Amino acid sequence: MTTTESPRRAATTPAPAPETPAASPARGGEPGSAKRMFSGMALIVGMLVALVVFILISASSGQLSIPVGEVASGFLQGIGIDVGGAASHPQAYNTLWSVRFPRVAMAAAVGAALAIGGVLMQGAFGNPLAEPSVVGVSSGAAVGAAAAIVFGLTAFGSWTQVVCAFVAGVATTAAVYLFSRSNGRTEVVTLVLTGIAINAVAGALLAFLMFIGDTQAREEIVFWQMGSLAGSRWEQVVIVAPIAIIGILLSMRLARSLDILSLGERSARHLGVDVERLRIFSILLVGLLTAAAVSFVGIVAFVGLVVPHLIRMMIGPGHRMLIPASVVGGALVLTAADLFARTAVAYADLPLGMITALVGGPFFFWLLRRTRRTAGGWG
Predict the structure, then answer these.
(1) Please, which pLDDT band fits residue 373 given cuts at 50, 70 and 90?
(2) Which of 112, 106, 6, 90 is closest to 55 using CA atoms?
(3) Could you tell me the domains of the chain?
């Protein structure tokens, strides 16, 4: 009896239901990923529209007011598209292409370069409080520019000050990395502390150069440190813009590795990421981008900190969307800041670095408090 009932019970036992595609974890993550991708694209498009608006307003504003429509037609005529119509002022076209368009283009290129530097620093070291100035590139560039001013160096003609600032900025970045490296590794805390020490030494050297310089040299150094886009020329734009574009393309190649590194160093190594090599390349790229930017416009603070963090808060930490969004965001922020610097006070050009610091300083303070509160303390 027992032997005859066993097969029947086995035959009537229902088989387990197969897994449905909806239960797959991989597919379960697709809607959220698609939503983040859509949000990122919408944000980039919105910022691009705002950037175009600010560019038109910035190019039309100044001592010589030019209607926005003439700005657009002047741009199209300059690239070979004849839309007809005469300008309301005989010098409007020359003013646009000799003064305002180069300045706006420089603002966009510098803003993008500084924002990418911030993304790389924060991603490579897993710290939202990191920015390009941590590696001492800005203070090093200031020392190089000050040395060229005080000693009257003319080896590269009118480009001497820029070349000295660029070389000193890159050299300072390399020094910070070399001094912070130990046993084939670079720890975040050691890098930050080394950067603080190098920045202090650079500040002392800068003070010494200002002490031995004459009154005119001191004024030039102070003005350079404040940051300004005044006097931007196409010759400068064609140097900064390609460096920024190359930096953006190289950063996009690092996006996947930076995403994996956000899981932790040990997990990243298990997944095949050479963490040390990634950090070396990121630091060098940050130094190149930041040195190229500050060499021409001076020190512009907090753009590399504020922009990436704000973008990350809106679209998440994925670098494939964070990098292009930060590029547009950095260009937008610096273009808007320069517009305010030119128009806030009549017949005056406020220092650009002062404006970004006035905005970035309070934001940094808020970020410190927010990070401490969410992390439950620093210990």
Answers:
(1) confident
(2) 106
(3) 99-367 (1.10.3470.10)
pTM attached to this predicted model: 0.85
Give me the DSSP letters along 165-234.
HHHHHHHHHHHHHHHHEETTEE-HHHHHHHHHHHHHHHHHHHHHHHHHS-HHHHHHHHHHHH---TT--H
Rounded CA-CA distance 140/202 in Å is 6
The number of C-alpha atoms within 13 Å of 249 and in the hemisphere containing its C-beta is 6
| pLDDT mean across residues, the chain | 85
Query: Got the DSSP string for 74-112?
Result: HHHHHTT-------SSTTHHHHIIIIIHHHHHHHHHHHH
pLDDT tens, position by position, 57-74: 999 998 888 888 889 888
Q: Is the pLDDT of residue 201 over 90?
A: yes
Per-residue pLDDT at 85: 65
